[in-house]
Amino acid sequence: MGQEGLVGYPSTHLTYLPYPAHLTMLHRFAKLVAAATVILILAGSLVTSHDAGLSVPDWPTSYGWNMFTFPPSMWVANILYEHGHRLIASSVGFLTIILAVWLWLADPRGWLRWFGVAALVAVIAQGILGGITVLFFLPAAVSTAHAGLAEIFFCMTVAIALFTSPRWRAGYEDAPANPGGVDDARLRRIATAATVLVYSQILIGATMRHTGAGLAIPDFPWMFGHLVPDHWSPAIAVHFAHRVGALVVTCAILVASAYVWSHHRGRRELTRPAALLPVLVAIQVTLGALTVLSQRNPWINSFHVVCGALVLTTSLVLTLRSWRVRFANEMPQPQRVRSAQRQEHTLSVSSGVRRDGARA
Amino acid sequence: MRLRNAWVSLLGIALAVNTLACGGGQETSSKSAEPSSPSAAPSGQKVDTATAGDVKGVVNVDGALPKNDVIKMNADPVCMKEAKGPQTSEAYIVSDDGKTLGNVFVYVKDGLGNYVFDTPTETAKIDQQQCRYHPHVFGMRVNQPLEILNSDPTLHNIHAMPKSNSEFNNGQPIQGMKMTHTFDKKEVMVPFKCDVHGWMNAYVGVLDHPYFAVTDKSGAFELKSLPPGTYTIEAWHEKLGTQTASVTLGPKETKDVTFSFKASGPTATN
Description:
heterodimer; A: mainly alpha; Four Helix Bundle (Hemerythrin (Met), subunit A); two-stranded antiparallel sheet; 11 helices; 2 strands; 1% strand; flat; disordered N terminus; B: mainly beta; Immunoglobulin-like; 2 domains; 5-stranded mixed β-sheet; 2 helices; globular
């Protein structure tokens, strides 16, 4: 019942292995959780964009009802966004429980099992932060933390999807031009720096958003008709920082992308995110400009938030893949493999490749 | 077997969480804050009505005000049904000739010294009706009960956003629900909003004295039974800001004050 996990890639360095169906399903499920998290981030940004965060004043109940029995006839106006966000968040939380349990039972990598638990803790903490911010009337610090943790949780779901993928487990050792996987310290530094910068920029954006500074500088590309604002306030400073941050992030992404294309052109696991990143950044900058020019149109603003999250996770994928060779040395020893996976383990070892992806 | 046990445990956890989060749907009349206990009246003098005078006046508009924003209520079918006809915001309420301004809160800002006033026992009221607040601008007293009513067959939340008093946000999902609230500090103005229906907003001025008024579209106001003295009178408008005038009132005297708000900013004369 196994699936050819490496279909579509040259078999020069790797014998095609039957990829166990339950691990394939786990990987697909992890991708589903990550996709659901994108929808959750969109729903959350729609709440803020519509100023609907307090339209359901109680938590965890909704107007006194159990969240899951709140009558749909009452999902009117801004309640639709806030209550919808809560329901989608609950669904993602439930999916994350399943994912964590599934990882715990099926994956032999101890660190990944605990990473699944960490993702579950993150989504629970995220829910509690969401509740706190409602009960305390959206304090900027809590709302910003809620936004920041949302991105971290999204990164975790994407990382789990990546870690459970057949090619990650095989160590991307399928490229004839560069056997053994990419081991480039400079790439690791560049990609990691780009990811950290993108996340920092998102935090600045979240601060701007939750302190009401989104239109503190009302024109674009100029700032009060100048290259640099001619007057200042805390709101203008935060907004200005976000625009400068956009420039910095754009440069960082372009450098990372150019480096990949110039040094690792033959590595599809790197060139794919490297090709996608500049496109996403271009869309993101456009959405940011349109957010200002449209006076914060809720949908444009929300897609700006979602696109920012996609930039972050695409950069994260590039970064993690650049670190893949280091992961290989941290895999569990064969004797720790659970009984449910012994058959797969045996197959992998007999083919010269451990199930963790490193060469046996 | 192990996997099946895990799924059973998972289901159990989900049921427990659902039970913990149980709610109602039953009608509840909530109270967002207990009225603070009446404190001992500070030593101070009472107003002698025999010598008190009046301040009256009008709030004019200088220039053409912008049109009120059009409100689309189609996000809530009940609001569409309740509020018939074209809907606009209540920011600019003017006379037919456009020369006087309504919804202006006029009050004595300063000059009352150590006069003391009894807290009224009757309740101030604000109603959510036809997906609007009624009244849109009003005044009340410190520690006076405010009754908040939802007359609409749809749900509202009443969200007060004071700076000096305590913020509150209460849901009123059922038609006819009431709650009471008291503000324990003077504050001009406390904004209210409904986060469900973004167009719904109102403002209350909370004062420790009875000298306040809200203009209708004729722009007229009157502050009665003011003791002799020199006062700072302030006029507040939600869009046009504030302006002040100084008035010196003798015994049994009546003074006129005219405020004139320009579309670009206010001016005052007396």
